[in-house]
Write a structure and sequence with these properties.
The complex is a heterodimer of chains A (89) and B (577). Chain A is an all-alpha fold and 89 residues long. In chain A, 75% of the residues lie in helices and 0% in strands. In chain B, strands 2, 3, 4, 5 and 8 form a five-stranded mixed beta sheet that branches. A five-stranded antiparallel beta sheet of chain B has the order 10-9-19-18-17, with helices on both faces. A three-stranded antiparallel beta sheet of chain B has the order 1-6-7. Classes of the chains: A mainly alpha (89), B alpha+beta (577).
């Protein structure tokens, strides 16, 4: 009887210790998860900023200005346009 | 001490009796007190200590949720929220060297005098600047000036700027929609921050989620029907025309015939939503939807369509418009250009007021009212924009004959530009009125039949004649495409009297063989000499329509040399209603 109790006590202590260590492990992993999530949020914010930057560079007004002023592009007049029949759409 | 004990001498002195029980008793009492205290703390007053404990390891954190983006039909961002910092100070706690102050003013982009004025304030708390970009905020934090702090906030940016400000609108304090789509779609776009309870360790890291108090609700993205490229073209051409004609204002709408989507909606004057400190409320109005005007001759096709649909006339029916004036009761109406006998087609082509009035008077007022009402006049267009107006269409019972005659050419009735553009879908399709929307549609949208398909085709043919030499708007011709449309030149009503100020307009669609786009242009009070719709609004229509069809890759339905010069440059754009 005493022996069984001793074995059970040892088991109990082991269980208690493993609970402690798994709890610790869980917290460590959770901290890591939090950190990664914060990083992901940061990237999302950065993505938004980059999108903003891209669309600011690509506004039609700016494209138009550069095409006209720097690249000296112009819309061809009617006389310089030839329509090729059977061209896709 | 007894004699006996003193005699024994060597024996240790004996403790007085009852001391041990006394001490024992005292200890027991103390122990009992301790036990009672601990019992009290554990059982009765447990809440206090638990609260104290959890306040040391527990926190409730706010979970941020950002506002959804507004996108154009291709996913290009039109409004994005990005985190920024609000810099604030406790003025009486600020201690900074002149060098630090200079750097702070530089990072805040404020003049040094303005900064020191703010810091001399009596208030306990002042905002130095809101919406500071993260990099500048980091430089300020690096200065580590006592009494200067920052807070997180969101700021909305609008890459399209003034080109689209009237449609998108803007947000006010706390990133809440204040104008335009931002206001109308607040519930869809707005995020609601959540909060959760967590356990933190001594380094301040979150180690465990205890409970989610309120789940955050992220704002959702919203796709508009706007095509950024067309919008820019529309805005540029409209602005150029408003400037060239020294006009008070202008509006332009492009509608996709198949879906009823608004591809572009431009207003002039405009404002920059990213920096609207000095913008007057006046500039912020989306006139194309929230203002009405008397449309003038652009309404004539509807009168003609009502007469054709009722079987009263045929396109070849002759109407005598001589001698250029018509007296109804005590009022007389005029034609700007005296004509004789005209066919119905020519009434539209030459925009004869008398012709239109005579046709109108042959109809019952209810017939005309039904036509106008079915075309969408007098009811808001329901595009999804806040504050759109319905315009004025009085009930037919109250019409006097002179009013019925003037309504035939668009006076005594008021519309907004989007209503007018949408109504032309009757002629651009085979007689269907399409719903109009500012949000992207997945495919073609069914319309509601209003007039007979033959009537629609007949009116479409008449509208095509308007832009040919002999019509009122040869300047609306587009190289490579057949276009159809109608000019309008209306006197403005001021305090109930028609003044010598005009609203010039042009509404049309192309390609006429299979219409894809409707473009409506309105120029308010052109004052550089020209004021006829055919010379002020029609050229804007032509350049926007040409560019739009090219951008959308619509195959031409006419040879590129189809633009015909008008016979005499002066007479044929003459028209006045």
């Amino acid at each position: 009887m005493v022996k069984v109790n001793l074995v059970l006590l040892a088991l109990l202590v082991m269980c208690a210790l493993s609970l402690v260590s798994s709890r610790h492990q869980a917290r460590k992993l959770f901290v890591e998860l939090e950190r990664e999530q914060a990083l992901a949020r940061g990237y999302e914010v950065e993505y938004g900023q980059l999108q903003l930057e891209q669309s600011t560079w690509a506004v039609p007004a700016r494209v138009d200005r550069i095409a006209r002023d720097q690249l000296h592009m112009q819309i061809p007049g009617a006389a310089r346009v030839q329509l090729i029949e059977g061209a896709p759409r | 001490m007894t004699m006996a004990s003193a005699a024994r001498g060597a024996q240790p002195p004996r403790l007085p009796p009852r001391r041990a029980p006394l001490v024992f008793g005292a200890l027991l009492v103390l122990l009992a007190l301790l036990a009672a205290r601990s019992l009290y703390l554990q059982r009765i007053d447990r809440g206090f200590l638990q609260e104290q404990g959890s306040s040391r390891y527990g926190r409730s954190l706010e979970v941020p949720a950002h506002r959804g983006r507004i996108l154009d039909r291709f996913g290009e961002p039109l409004a994005i929220s990005t985190p920024v910092k609000a810099i604030w100070a406790w003025p009486d706690k600020v201690e900074a060297t002149p060098e630090q102050m200079r750097k702070l003013a530089g990072a805040l982009d404020l003049p040094p005098q303005a900064l020191s004025a703010k810091l001399k304030s009596d208030a306990d708390f002042v905002y130095l600047k809101k919406g500071v970009p993260p990099d500048a905020a980091a430089r300020i934090a690096a200065l580590a000036i006592p009494g200067i702090h920052d807070d997180d906030e969101y700021r909305r940016y609008y890459p399209a700027g003034e080109v689209l400000s009237h449609v998108v609108g803007f947000t006010g304090d706390g990133d809440v929609g204040q104008e335009g789509i931002e206001l109308a779609q607040q519930a869809w776009l707005g995020g609601r921050p959540g909060s959760r309870r967590v356990i933190i360790n001594r380094r301040g890291e979150v180690v465990e989620d205890v409970a989610s108090i309120r789940a955050p609700q992220e704002g959702r993205d919203l796709a508009l029907s706007i095509d950024s490229r067309l919008q820019y073209t529309a805005f540029r051409e409209l602005k150029a025309a408003v400037d060239a004609n020294r006009a008070k204002a202008g509006g332009l709408v492009i509608i996709d015939v198949r879906t009823g989507e608004i591809l572009a909606l431009a207003n002039c004057p405009s404002y920059n939503p990213n920096n609207r400190n000095h913008a007057a409320r006046e500039r912020m109005r989306n006139r194309a939807l929230t203002d009405t005007f008397e449309p003038g001759s652009t309404l004539k096709p509807f009168t003609i369509a009502a007469a054709l649909d009722a079987g009263k006339v045929r396109p070849g029916t002759i109407v005598d418009t001589a001698p250029g004036t018509l007296t109804i009761g005590t009022s007389t109406i005029h034609d700007a250009h005296r004509e004789g006998a005209l066919t119905i087609e020519q009434v539209v082509q030459k925009s004869s007021n008398i012709g239109a009035a005579k046709i109108a008077l042959s109809l019952a007022p209810e017939t005309m009212w039904t036509m106008f009402s079915e075309a969408g006049f007098g009811t808001p267009p329901k595009s999804g924009f806040p504050g759109e107006v319905s315009g004025r269409l009085r009930p037919a019972k109250t019409w006097r004959p002179i009013e019925q005659a003037t309504m035939a050419y668009g006076h005594g009735i008021s519309v907004n530009l989007v209503q007018l553009a949408r109504a032309y879908s009757l002629f651009a399709t085979d007689g269907e009125l399409k719903p109009v929307t500012l949000f992207r549609e997945a495919g073609p949208v069914a319309g509601r039949p209003v007039i007979k398909p033959e009537t629609a085709r007949e009116v479409r043919h008449m509208l095509e004649m308007v832009v040919l030499p002999g019509g009122t708007a040869p300047k609306a011709q587009v190289a490579g495409y057949r276009v159809a449309g109608k000019t309008g030149t209306a006197h403005k009503l001021e305090d109930g009297v028609y003044a010598n100020k005009y609203v010039s307009s042009f509404v049309g669609f192309a390609p006429a063989s299979n219409p894809r786009l409707i473009v409506a242009v309105m120029i308010d009070e052109p004052s550089a000499g020209q004021y006829y719709g055919g010379s002020v609004a029609a050229p804007v229509f032509a350049s926007v329509m040409g560019a739009a069809l090219r951008l959308l890759g619509v195959p031409p339905d006419a040879p590129v040399n189809n633009v015909l010069p008008s016979d005499d440059d002066d007479g044929d754009v003459r028209e006045e209603t």
